[in-house]
Amino acid sequence: MPPADVPLLDGPVEIRGALDLERTAAGLRPRRLPSWTRPQIPSPFCELVVAMPSGVRMVFATEATGLELDVLTTKTLAFTGEPNPGGVFALVVDGVPAERVPTPDGNVLALDPSGVKPPDVTPGEPATVRFGPLPPGRKQVEIWLPQSAQVELIALRADGPVHPPEPDPRPRWVHHGSSISHCMEADDPLGTWPVVAARAADVNVLNLGLAGNAMLDPFTARTIRDLPADVISLKLGINVVNGDTMRLRVFEPAVHGFLDTVREGHPDTPLLVVSPILCPMVEDLPGPTFPEIEDGTVRFRTAGDAARLAEGALSLSVIREVLHRIVGERSAADPNLHYLDGRELFGESDVADLPDALHPNAAGYRRMGERFAAYAFGAGGPFAR
User: At what angle do helices 316-331 and 248-265 cross, to 10 degrees?
Assistant: First the structure.
């Protein structure tokens, strides 16, 4: 049969991993925070990453052997001045990765480095992402959206019947973190470490990894408080150091406040606080960090001065000590609160997979996901079933 339109709203397609679908001039833009947070988003950069669909997937059952998805993408300019590749769309059929399609060109967005001016957007055109041939017969299909570009969904077409997906009975894991949880450097949406861990542990993940924006924001804590969750993880600290946004006096009560808010909605849910992974440049120095370009390669440096640590500036060593102590003190009355040193996920032996001195590469992210699944969901772990 010829391809027929499938409604994106109020039809058989579920969009999982998004908490808001924003209507745009082109279509529907998935966002990973609820609509009520929009007025509270503090910067264009924060809004940009909220609308990058890391962990977002379209899910349905179908007898189709061919699918077409019309999209308008928005890629960002890299530090080199060239558009980022934007990743890929990944098709999963009955739980098995089946096809990868490069993200087509569309809009190109350049952020004002100062964060004061609105982004500069060079308009692009919609494009069609095609999948197939798919195996015959009824099957459960997932289309995972790229984690490193915004995507406006315009239309879906299928050459066979489309049905609502099977309910997902798996435990629901809510994770929040920084760019190292957003994972723009992963090779595809299934390679982000939270998705690697979720697939290994057979759980349903909601990834609230927000690049550059794990700042202990109250709107993020309230979002997690109000979500259904069987287990929760919070990977905290690196953005606070890289942005040099807090001092010790502010950071410690902010962590308590974030945990207090989450616990209002989840008083007994297993909750794992994860400290930063290894980042040699700020292990014992404060931020701020900044990118440098040498021979077309980006590497991050710190402008921090060790003398400022005595004034309450934060390094990763200080962050880990504070998080470890806070969890230890609170866990006396909260036995479902746990701590993991992030260097157990990515440490000294992994530094070769830290090409820009800040973010793991695709191999590093996959290893992080495997290690997290083994630790958190394995026998004796805080999320063991």
Answer: 40
